[in-house]
Amino acid sequence: SLTVLQALEDGLKRADADPSVKAVIVCGENGKFSAGADIQGFSSPKSRGGALGPIVSLIERSEKPVVAAIEGIALGGGLEITLGCHYRIAHVKAQLGLPEVTIGLLPGAEGTQRLPRLIGVPAALDIITTGRHIPATEALKLGLVDEIVEENTVEAAIHLAKKV
């Protein structure tokens, strides 16, 4: 939603401007990272701001480490947010993917550019064109996530952030 995007942008800008902040953890709520955009919102008039692409670029440009703590699902725009992060930790039961292609939409926040850079063209093409959900264990093998955990992903992300 526009509210979530604005909060994410505001939080990142505050963190970057605050010298006491050493790293940023991006996580979801209620055991889910993000299912991406609500496609119902695609038919509404565009509001000023709120585009996901520039926010993902803001994450990527952060001088402070940004770690995604992925629980549940990171699909569509949710996965694109993680691709802007410098590190990604996923719960062992997490699922990642770009399912919007199954309804004829292309990922719109540069996921089609960032994913091949991260995991290579053949693996990225499979994910981009099929829309299948990638289990965390496969995501680790592909290099899509840096680590998988069976416990609290936010705590693991904090630990990693302190390490880097």
Biggest sheet, spatial arrangement of strands: 1-2-4-7
> What's the CATH class label?
Alpha Beta
Find the count of extended strands (DSSP E, 2+ residues).
7
Number of helices: 7
Keywords: Isomerase, Lyase, Multifunctional enzyme
GO molecular function: (3S)-3-hydroxyacyl-CoA dehydrogenase (NAD+) activity; delta(3)-delta(2)-enoyl-CoA isomerase activity; enoyl-CoA hydratase activity
Protein name: Peroxisomal bifunctional enzyme
InterPro entries: ClpP/crotonase-like_dom_sf, Enoyl-CoA_hyd/isom_CS, Enoyl-CoA_hydra/iso
Task: Give a description of the structure.
- This protein is α/β, with parallel strands linked by helices and 164 residues long.
- The chain has one domain: 2-enoyl-CoA Hydratase, Chain A, domain 1, CATH 3.90.226.
- 43% of the residues lie in helices and 15% in strands.
